[in-house]
Amino acid sequence: MSMRREWGGEGEWHPHELENAMEYFVLEHDRRLPSNGANLAFPERMLRGYRYAEQQEMVYVKKGSRLNPGCMIENPLLLVGAELRAVVSRMVPNIGYKSVIVMDLEQQGQFFYDWMDVQEVPCLAPERTVTENGRVSKMWVDPWALQDAAIFQIPYYRSRVLVARVDIAEGLLRKSLYGLSVRRIELVGGIG
What is the value of pTM for the model shown? Predict the structure, then answer.
């Protein structure tokens, strides 16, 4: 990541902080695979937010739909498979999570996911966000919110971008998780 000085005044970046800026990567569902979120019926309490959900929730595959069980489901909520959560939990041991069982009644199958309580970092200038081929490649964020953030999500209009530090991204890439795409993102401090 290149954190360039985009703003001044009190609390501004110093040159030595810019040189030590961390690299960040987007973690997302592999677009070559079918997306699953629209095929699932979530309880209303889950759609209201993490804090409203029970410690263990049940989600159902909609009638006539199929589930492609990858390591993550992005929309409308971010659900991750056990291997992905294990890598993140090893590097961020205090991250909370709730268990989600996805039931496919037609295929008589069940799949286990976790809903992680991932920190939110606000996008300071959504109108300036750069996208390439429909993917976010550059965002403006609060640099102070990133200080202790190993993995976080950035709300962007009606979706969220899941972002991780380079060490977590490398750990996930070593696992070769089915359905995971990892790509670099440039985060710029301030609002420009």
Answer: 0.81
